[in-house]
Design a protein that fits this description.
The protein has 99 residues and is of the alpha+beta class. Helices cover 40% and strands 27% of the residues. Helix 1 packs across helix 2.
């Protein structure tokens, strides 16, 4: 049995819906970092439409606001990426991230 890799590249991204923002993290698909984010955003949208979650990001995605996304950073390793995500959320205070 193969051991799970912990040294993958992870992409930290910012999703903007109207005036609200969300900081997220996804595993990189090869070197196509923006494509990785696009796939993750599509999953967010699909989930928002299919499920009736009352999470801030789902409610924002159900609105008619324009959706924009951008790559903030690429971080190697799962632990480092999650740590950096928490730092960015604390520093940027995105309105759609809820804990």
């Amino acid at each position: 049995m193969r051991r799970k890799r912990s040294d993958r590249n992870h992409v930290l991204y910012q999703l903007t819906i109207g005036q609200e923002t969300y900081i997220g993290l996804t595993v990189a698909i090869g070197q196509a970092y923006l494509r990785s984010v696009k796939v993750r955003v599509q999953k967010h949208i699909s989930r928002a439409k299919k499920e009736s979650k009352d999470w801030a990001i789902c409610e924002a995605l159900r609105s008619d606001e324009a959706i924009q996304y951008e790559v903030l950073e690429v971080v190697r390793g799962r632990k480092a990426a999650h740590s950096r995500e928490r730092e960015l959320i604390e520093a940027l205070s995105p309105s759609l991230n809820t804990f």
